[in-house]
């Protein structure tokens, strides 16, 4: 698919009016002005694409995948690789770390265990047994930009749509389409949103959103911060990648339970 075809495909799916889940993210603005800003914004098509991805993901009760996370913490880029199982409702997450902390297991189920995370370490740390952590507490958030209760592809897409809705009124937004992008050997389609200059209300200098070219499943989100000096390259602030996506595995409660005999809790 050529670039112009991809652009036309995205734009043709938008229609003449949009309904947004959170139209009042532009704090203090009148609803009519907010709607006008969204309708006339260059972010109209990217937001619509996010909503289409949400609808697609609604078809899947659960999935497993390999999750790769890269986050800039201070001046250090932290990377983690893990296998994950996710059930959409109630949000249920099982993580098995491969890098770092190989063998660490994490379980979170919305509405269970006082909405706390269950963590089991390996090696000498395993002697402490299973730990129960506040997902927003300092221990759980150490080395993380986001809490586990917002984990998953659908939450990632929803937060991206909300971000773009909040930024839709900003001037000089640049949107670029890449119908022949790649992640490794995976054929992808990508949208890039750029705020050329740092401006109040703009969270990131560059955002890149990748979809699997075959399935339209979101597979990567990247955010780049604004350069700290004129002419400097922007730093990658965070990157989230979902590979080997396998939907509708029929996960049961036991898949998100420390009593599962296949787990090491």
Protein model, in words:
The protein is of the alpha+beta class. A hairpin with a 5-residue loop joins strand 3 and strand 4 (105-109). It is globular, with a radius of gyration of 20 Å. The protein has 5 helices and 11 strands. The chain starts with a helix and ends in an 18-residue tail after the last strand. The protein has helices spanning 3-12, 31-40, 44-57, 138-141, 153-167, and strands spanning 62-73, 76-87, 92-99, 105-109, 117-120, 131-133, 174-183, 186-194, 206-212, 218-224, 236-247.
In short:
Helices cover 20% and strands 34% of the residues. It has 5 helices and 11 strands.
Task: Break the fold down into its secondary structure elements and pairings.
Layout: H1 3-12, H2 31-40, H3 44-57, E1 62-73, E2 76-87, E3 92-99, E4 105-109, E5 117-120, E6 131-133, H4 138-141, H5 153-167, E7 174-183, E8 186-194, E9 206-212, E10 218-224, E11 236-247
Antiparallel strand pairs: 1-2, 1-11, 2-3, 3-4, 4-5, 5-6, 7-8, 8-9, 9-10, 10-11
Give keywords:
alpha+beta, 20% helix, 265 residues, 11 strands, 5 helices, 2 domains, 11-stranded antiparallel beta sheet, globular, single chain, disordered N terminus
